[in-house]
Amino acid sequence: MRRPLIAGNWKMYKTVPEAVSLAREVAAGAGSAAGEVDVLVAPPFTALHAVKEALGGSAVALGAQDMHWESEGAFTGAVSPVMLRDAGCSHVILGHSERRQLFGETDESVARKAAAALAQALTPILCVGETLAERESGRTMEVVERQVERALRALSPDQVAGLVIAYEPVWAIGTGRTATPAQAQELHSFIRKRVATSHGEPAAGAARILYGGSVKPDNIRSLMAEPDIDGALVGGASLGTASFLKIVRYPAA
Ligand code: PGA
Predict the structure, then answer these.
(1) Rounded to the nearest 5 degrees, what angle is found at the Cα of 99, between the Cα atoms of 97 and 104?
(2) Ligand 1 binding pocket, CB closer than 6 Å
(3) Is the Cβ–Cβ distance between 70 and 84 less than 8 Å?
(4) How far away, in angstroms, is 74 Cα from ligand 1 center?
(5) Which pLDDT score is estimated for 67?
(6) Is residue 34 very low, low, confident or very high in pLDDT (cuts 50, 70, 90)?
(7) What is the per-residue pLDDT for 35?
(8) How many CB atoms lie within 10 A of CB 157?
(9) Which DSSP category does 87 fall into?
(10) 235 phi and psi angles, rounded to 5 deg
(11) Hey, which of 131, 178, 215, 248 would you mutate to test ligand 1's pocket, going by the most ligand atoms within 8 Å of its Cβ?
(12) Neighbour-count burial for 81-106, b at 16+ CB within 10 Å, e otherwise
C-alpha cells in the first residue's frame, strides 16, 4: 500500500516571518492526520532553514522547489543539493511546469537534477504534465510519456521505487480548472504502466504519483478515491492554514 502524500508548493510566496508562522500552524494542525498521510511543505529557498526550525519535531517534511545538479561551484544564483540537505530538506520538486515554461527547464536538466538529488538522499518530486494546446491536439500521452521516460531513464528500479511523480496538467495549475478524477486517474494509470514497462512492476507499484492542479478542500476526496492517485501537490490552497489543513485531513472529512 502506498502512503498518501500531501505536499504544499508555496512557490514565490511568503517572507521568512510569514513562512514560519504558516509552518508552525501546519505542524500543529497536521498532527492528527499524521497517522494516515505524509505531509510536506516546500517554501522558497530563503525560508527553508527557518521553516525547518519552525516544524521542529513534527512529522511534516521539508522540500525545496528546485535545485542545481552540481554540489558547489561558480553558478551564480543557484542552490545545490548539498545545500538543500544542509537546510533540512528531505525532498525537492523538480521540473515544475513553471520552471519548464518560464525558466528554460528541459527534460535533460530534470534528469540530471533527479540523479543529483538521489545522490544526496533527497527524494525528487518529479513534475510532468501537458499544456492545454497539447491536450487539445491529442498529444497528452505522448508528452507525458516523453517527460517520464527522459527523467527516469538513468535511474535504477530501486531509485524509481522511492520516487514521487506529480502529474500536473498545465491547464489546471492556478486556474481553478481541476482535471476530473477520471481524467487524472487515466494519466496516473498511464504513467504507472509506463514506469512498470521501464523499471518493473515493483518499482511502479511503490512510486507515489501525486495529482496537482487546483486541488482544493472540496475536490481532494474525490481525487484520492482513484486507485492510482497517491496524494496531491497543492499550490494556491497550501498558502493558507485552514485550506491546507482541510486537504491534509481529507480522510477524516
Ligand atoms: P495550484 O498549483 O494548486 O495553485 O493549481 C499546483 C502546482 O503548481 O503545483
Answers:
(1) 115
(2) 9, 168, 173-174, 212-215, 233-237
(3) no
(4) 32
(5) 98
(6) low
(7) 77
(8) 17
(9) T
(10) -95, -95
(11) 215
(12) bbbbbebbbebbbbbbbbbbeeeebe
